[in-house]
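ARCHIVE CARD
CATEGORY: sequence design from structure
SOURCE FIELD: tokenized fold
FIELD CONTENT:
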């Protein structure tokens, strides 16, 4: 399924939750809690342009729309940001994963939520299973095509 960035709603949600630069997972978490019908998503984004790169990222999806509360800080136009979801969690699943992470690893931040085992590293630090490999591989192929 192809998802498109809703630039207007991304900016509105960012303002509503008072999002911060360089905290995409926390921003997506707060956005998921504040948005009816939201699904929290972790994966990768391509920031296209002269120095195009793949970043680990978090956002929410509502229907077939991407709402990215970190978008205002990316300094890109909507057409220059491409999303590759690896893990999708309902708000209920997200709350449970955060609670479990806080109990098991109280000294570590609970986000991002790790994917399924066995874990592999993608990007610099993101851990995930097969679905992360698929999203990262697709992002790499897309980056080459750009």
């Amino acid at each position: 399924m192809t998802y498109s960035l809703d630039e207007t709603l991304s900016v509105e949600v960012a303002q509503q939750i008072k999002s911060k630069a360089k905290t995409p997972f926390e921003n997506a978490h707060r956005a998921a809690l504040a948005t009816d019908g939201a699904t929290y998503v972790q994966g990768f984004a391509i920031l296209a342009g002269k120095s195009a790169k793949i970043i680990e990222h978090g956002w929410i999806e509502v229907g077939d729309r991407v709402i990215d509360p970190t978008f205002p800080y990316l300094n890109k136009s909507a057409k220059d940001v491409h999303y590759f979801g690896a893990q999708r969690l309902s708000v209920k699943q997200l709350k449970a994963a955060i609670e479990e992470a806080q109990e098991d690893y109280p000294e570590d931040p609970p986000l991002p939520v790790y994917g399924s085992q066995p874990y592999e590293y993608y990007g610099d630090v993101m851990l995930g299973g097969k679905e992360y490999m698929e999203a990262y591989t697709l992002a790499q192929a897309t980056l080459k095509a750009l």
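CARD ANNOTATION: The chain has four helices and seven strands. Residues 25 and 56 are 9 Å apart (CA to CA).
SHELF: design records, drawer C
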